[in-house]
Amino acid sequence: MGEMVMKTLFDRRSVLSGLDARQKKQAGAVMLGVAVCFAFSAFTFMDFLYCLSDCIGSVVCGGLDIALRDALRSLPVFLSFFLSLSGLLGAHAFYRNEGGDILRKRAKSCAVFAVVLGAVIAFYVLAMRIAGRYLSLTEGGPSRLYPLDALLYAMLYIACGASVLAYLKRSPGFAGPGRAPIQRRGRGVRRVFRAVWLLVALYGFCGFFFGIFILDFSAGYVPYTLAFLLVSLVAFLSIAVWELYYNNLTEAARRAVTLPLALVSLAVSLATAATYFFTLKHNLEGPANVGFGVLPVAMSAGVNLATLLVVLTPLIVSVAAIVKGLRIRAMSLS
User: Fold this and answer.
1) How many domains does the chain have?
2) Which runs of E-coded beta strand occur in 12-159?
């Protein structure tokens, strides 16, 4: 099984084919870094949303002063998400490798941001502890070790950011493979959509893996709960397939598989959306009762906006890919 996966990954249709052992090792390390940073970003994103929900609830139930107190106490949680995101974007810059100057500029900016923001979080936690706002470094909150875990997390990213800066300073260039750059036409719109797509994928990742443990599987909610897990998984797989499979293909291979892959993606997305809306029709209270534990901000008013985004985004991606595939086919026939 492992040999088959590696053969598929490094076959002649992949940008990884033809690399020497050192280059393959670098490429593998970067892909591992992207995966780890994605997981960190997903978990800190959920903590971010939980604490944001608490602050909103404090505004409604206790007033602005209590909400401000909760926000100040949870500030390391909010900042840790942006810290994780900087790590993910930095790893993704190495993954895309759109050119030496572009790579260095993006990786350096992400690394500097990580070092600075990590230092801010560490200083803030220590200052709050000295001031007595935190009763101890393990008083608890989003986790049992909060805010110590936020402090350690910040130190980790300071070390990682410093290591990247040192690597960029002493290394003549990154030897990993390059991947398809983002097209210049409409680049701003593309970047905004890719940012939304990333957040939806992060939510889908945690919506699925967290949902297994915290969603309601009691009588009456099983169909909606399963549908919720399904759309969350598809949202995560959507970005995984296009980024890790499609963008690892050579240009010729991408041209060949764009339309077939887009059609399969559309079929899966439509089937998933139909399943979700069918179960929602028969369980209208599902979002408020089942989904509250996954995203309280969206579910607190009985609104299911977050899950609707999770359902619709893979459909939008699939339709855009079909348009691209049809355009490639038309150009090849002309």
Assistant:
1) 2
2) none
At which of 148, 179, 210 does a domain end? Answer: 179
User: CA angle at residue 106 from 180 to 11, to 5 degrees?
Assistant: 30
Last residue of a domain, one of 179, 212, 246: 179
The reply to whether 142 and 194 lie within a common domain is no
User: Where would I find the H helices in 10-61?
Assistant: 21-61
Q: What is the DSSP string of 239-259?
A: HHIIIIIGGGB-HHHHHHHHH
Range of the domain at 326: 184-334
Phi and psi angles of residue 14, each rounded to the nearest 5 degrees, phi first: -100, 150
Q: Rounded CA gap, 119 and 300, in Å? A: 34
Residue-level pLDDT at 9: 42
CB 264 within 8 A of CB 251: no
Residue 114: per-residue pLDDT: 95
287 upstream amide cis, omega within 30 of 0: no
Question: What would the pLDDT profile of 42-86 be if each residue is shown by its tens digit?
Answer: 989 888 888 887 887 787 777 788 889 889 999 999 999 999 999
Number of C-beta neighbours around residue 69 at 10 A: 14
Q: Are residues 41 and 175 in the same domain?
A: yes
Report the C-alpha gap between 229 and 209 in whole angstroms. 8
Single pTM value for the model: 0.84
Decide: 295 and 306 in contact? Cβ < 8 Å. Answer: yes
Number of C-beta neighbours around residue 186 at 10 A:
10
Based on the fold, state whether residues 151 and 198 are members of the same structural domain.
no
Amino acid letter, residue 85: L
6 vs 285, more confident: 285
DSSP-derived letter for residue 48 is H
The pLDDT value recorded for residue 63 is: 78
In the numeric block, the tokens 């995203």 are attached to 295
Neighbours of 296 (CB within 10 A): 16
Q: Which amino acid is at 214?
A: I
CA distances from 86 to 41, 52, 56, 284 (A): 9, 20, 26, 38
| Whether residue 282 sits in one domain with residue 220 | yes
Cα 316 to the chain's mean position, in Å? 18
